[in-house]
């Protein structure tokens, strides 16, 4: 698959880059993507939820009524879960929701997501550029030239602080490096903007695995 390289004005530079089928042309594995996204979302959970059980709530332990003769069920403590203000039965406790996945499966998931975007013609190549000082207005102009109005994921070959600072206040725009991009971000974007150098970094990254 060949893609034309655009400049930051949205103009065709006349150069074309061939995307490797080993990275952008694999058969998408839906289950691998599902597991990788599930792990990503699980890792975002704090797991600090907590409710008090009957031994933790404040209240008297005095028997609130006699055992027999009332016509109702017996009750021994106001902290019982059947009463308002009592403890909760089997309530949530702090826990870690994260789980492990095989590295090869995670690689397959990312390759599947990249291939889906390429198959749907949602990948654009942009020649490498730099921003001297962080300016949101200037960066919005670049996105407008590239016709990126919806959710956009920009993948850089390496960290560029000025690009990150220029984009972080723009709704729906996320910047990541090749090493940091994940399956969730790839599937959650409408358009993928790859810097020209990022293609080689992607190919080198996955060929080494």
From TrEMBL:
Pfam families: Ribosomal_L4. GO terms for cellular component: ribosome. The keyword 4Fe-4S does not apply. The keyword Iron does not apply. Keywords: Ribonucleoprotein, Ribosomal protein, RNA-binding, rRNA-binding. It comes from the Bacteria. Residues 44-75 are annotated as: Disordered. InterPro entries: Ribosomal_uL4, Ribosomal_uL4-like, Ribosomal_uL4_dom_sf. Part of the 50S ribosomal subunit. Belongs to the universal ribosomal protein uL4 family. One of the primary rRNA binding proteins, this protein initially binds near the 5'-end of the 23S rRNA. It is important during the early stages of 50S assembly. It makes multiple contacts with different domains of the 23S rRNA in the assembled 50S subunit and ribosome. This is Large ribosomal subunit protein uL4. It comes from Pontibacter silvestris. The gene is rplD.
């Amino acid at each position: 698959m060949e893609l034309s390289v655009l400049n930051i004005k949205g103009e065709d530079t006349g150069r074309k880059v061939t995307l490797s089928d080993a990275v952008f042309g694999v058969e998408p594995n839906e289950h691998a993507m599902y597991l990788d996204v599930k792990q990503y979302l699980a890792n975002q959970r704090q797991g600090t939820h907590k409710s008090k059980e009957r031994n933790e709530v404040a209240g008297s332990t005095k028997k609130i009524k006699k055992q027999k003769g009332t016509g109702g069920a017996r009750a021994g403590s106001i902290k019982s879960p059947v009463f308002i203000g009592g403890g909760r039965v089997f309530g949530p406790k702090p826990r870690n929701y994260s789980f492990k996945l095989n590295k090869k499966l995670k690689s397959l998931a990312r390759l599947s997501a990249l291939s889906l975007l390429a198959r749907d013609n949602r990948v654009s190549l942009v020649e490498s550029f730099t921003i001297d000082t962080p300016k949101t207005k200037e960066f919005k102009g670049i996105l407008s030239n590239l016709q990126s109005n919806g959710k956009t994921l920009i993948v850089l070959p390496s960290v560029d602080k000025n690009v990150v600072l220029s984009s972080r206040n723009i709704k729906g725009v996320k910047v990541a490096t090749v090493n940091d991009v994940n399956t969730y971000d790839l599937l959650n974007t409408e358009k993928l903007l790859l810097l020209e150098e990022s293609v080689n970094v992607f190919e080198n990254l996955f060929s080494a695995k």
